[in-house]
């Protein structure tokens, strides 16, 4: 019985259907992008570890790219609102969750910003820019 399974397995692996003319997809672009991300230097701008609502003082972003890593540590609503410090009427909601969760939001655009965090359960927020 083992011989029959071995023959069937060998024939299945070498059948013409499995060796079609599909071209192999090169992963070099993906690997290169990952390698670049590893070598990048992120500089912290704002770090919040709290369990109460708050607004940051204005912070300046001078890098070409920046990110906000947030983590909601408990059950309860967490909302992140980003304001342009020079035009406070402009705002954007970056996160709105009510369950324990975390994510990273990547942004571009130099300038001065204010981040408002609405939450009453433990949370963490880290703003970093690419240097």
Describe the protein in words.
It is a single chain. Helix content is 18%, strand content 47%. It is of the alpha+beta class. The chain has a domain at 42-131: Jelly Rolls, CATH 2.60.120. Strands 2, 3, 5, 6 and 8 form a five-stranded antiparallel sheet that branches. Strand 5 and strand 6 form a beta hairpin. The longest helix has 12 residues, at 2-13.
**What global shape is seen?**
globular
- CATH-assigned fold name of the domain at 42-131: Jelly Rolls
Strand-and-helix sequence, N→C? Answer: HHEEEEEEEEE
**What value does the Rg take, in angstroms?**
24 Å
Tally of DSSP helical segments: 2
Residue fraction in strands: over 45%
- Which regions contain 5 or more consecutive residues with pLDDT less than 50? 1-21, 26-32
Task: Outline the biggest β-sheet.
Answer: 5 strands, antiparallel
What do the pLDDT scores average to? 81
Work out the helicity level: 10-25%
**Regarding CATH, which class of the domain at 42-131?**
Mainly Beta
Report the structural category.
alpha+beta
CATH architectural grouping of the domain at 42-131: Sandwich
């Amino acid at each position: 019985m083992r011989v029959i399974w071995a023959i069937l397995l060998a024939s299945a692996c070498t059948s013409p259907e499995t060796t079609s003319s599909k071209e192999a997809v090169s992963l070099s672009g993906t690997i290169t992008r990952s390698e670049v991300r590893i070598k990048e230097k992120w500089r912290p701008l704002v770090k919040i570890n709290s369990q109460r609502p708050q607004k940051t003082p204005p912070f300046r972003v001078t890098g070409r790219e920046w990110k906000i890593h947030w983590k909601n540590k408990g059950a309860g609503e967490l909302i992140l609102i980003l304001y342009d410090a020079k035009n406070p009427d402009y705002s954007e909601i970056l996160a709105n969750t009510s369950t324990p969760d975390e994510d990273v939001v990547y942004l571009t655009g130099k300038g001065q910003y204010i981040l408002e965090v609405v939450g009453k359960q433990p949370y963490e927020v880290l703003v970093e820019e690419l240097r």
